[in-house]
Amino acid sequence: MPASLDGPGGAQFLEYAAMSNAVENHALGTDVLSMAPAEMLAEYRDNPHRVRRHRVVREGGRIVARAMVTLRPHLPGNGAHLMVDVLPAHRGRGIGATLLEAAERIAVDAGAPVLKVAVAHSAVSGGDRIASPTGFGDVAAHDDGVRFLTSHGYALEQITRISLLELGSAPELEAPAPPDHRVVTWVGPTPSAWIDDLAALRTRMSTDAPSGALVELEDPWDAARISEHDERIAGSGRTALTAAAEHVPTGALVGFSELLCSDAAAVAIQEDTLVLREHRGRRLGTLLKVATADLLRTHAPGVETVVTWNAEENRPMLDVNEAMGFRAIGYEGAWQRRL
């Protein structure tokens, strides 16, 4: 990865980013999830907790396909995440299969025990379907990504709904804090007073969020990792907006929700939202989502929409989102192949 978009390799990365965005835009039928190159570069660089390897295929001097392998050296048992994208006009010629084989080889050589792929699928209805083994959601059997992955031995494990909220038409929701709880919010890096609590919550995110039969081990966070995350977000031109729920008697954070916004886009991205299991049933999820939406309206009034991802079996959070006005715009399949 280049050090910057202006330095050596920057022009090639701009082409790489455009190709990646084009594939996802085609799958979903919208460009709402297009990432700005600076944001993508920040996420694709290696960091102490994530290593990424890239391969591209060029034709006529242009990048027409790419593969990316994501490894977590601190958590080898969690396996590797693979991504293979081929521009629609270049499919059906074996390019994707060749790239997938190269990506799998990198993962296997690194000792990954399981391979995972997350793919955006079209929201078309009808025709033959492949159901999620969770019992919630399905995908069209004729979808390009579905046909490709099933032909290479990957099993569908979970469906994630991609939803969009148009802030201008969102209903006003009232979400008072329950007894013994209060909301705290911040813009930008995590205040030092809350770093340890947020690290504990992010660790629980890896075990408490619905994951179906996907291999998901506990992914530990600490203060240093929180700081690295915050610096990476800020360095890419994005701003993190966070709302957290404090359990007043103990002074501990028991839930949080994070949005990312950018001056370069009218779309905000909903990142993690979590309420600890032992504090659920008090409408804290609604409280946090409403608080981040209010924070967004105040801090970034130019943002028009919010996009979020939720497991189809996560009905409590889907209920919150639907009440806020979110609507489905597509689906993401989580696929897995055990080695």
Topology overview:
Layout: H1 10-28, H2 37-44, E1 51-59, E2 62-71, E3 80-86, H3 95-109, E4 114-121, E5 129-131, E6 138-140, H4 144-151, E7 155-166, E8 181-187, H5 195-208, H6 223-235, E9 238-247, E10 252-262, E11 267-275, H7 284-299, E12 305-311, H8 315-324, E13 327-338
Parallel strand pairs: 3-4, 11-12
Antiparallel strand pairs: 1-2, 2-3, 4-13, 5-6, 7-12, 7-13, 8-9, 9-10, 10-11
Describe what this molecule looks like in 3D.
The protein starts with 9 loop residues before the first helix and ends with a strand. It contains eight helices and 13 strands. The model has no long low-confidence stretch (mean pLDDT 94). The longest helix is centred in the first third of the chain and has 19 residues. Strands 1-2-3-4-13-7-12-11-10-9-8 form an eleven-stranded mixed β-sheet, sandwiched between helices. Strands 5-6 form a two-stranded antiparallel sheet. Helices cover 30% and strands 32% of the residues. The protein has two domains: 153 residues, Aminopeptidase (3-Layer(aba) Sandwich); 164 residues, Gcn5-related N-acetyltransferase (GNAT) (Aminopeptidase), CATH 3.40.630.30. By secondary structure, the chain is α+β, with helices and mostly antiparallel strands.
Which oligomeric form is depicted?
single chain
Q: Per the principal axes of the C-alpha atoms, what is the gross shape?
A: globular
How large is the count of helical segments? 8
Which fold name is given in CATH as the topology of the largest domain?
Aminopeptidase
Main-sheet strand order equals 1-2-3-4-13-7-12-11-10-9-8
What is the name of the CATH class of the largest domain? Alpha Beta
Number of domains: 2
Supply the CATH superfamily name of the largest domain: Gcn5-related N-acetyltransferase (GNAT)
**Alpha-beta content class:** alpha+beta
Helix content: 25-40%
| Largest sheet features | 11 strands, mixed
Low-confidence stretches: none
H/E series, N to C?
HHEEEHEEEHEEHHEEEHEHE
Radius of gyration: 20 Å
Mean pLDDT: 94
N-C termini distance: 29 Å
Strand fraction equals 25-35%
| Name given to the CATH architecture of the largest domain | 3-Layer(aba) Sandwich
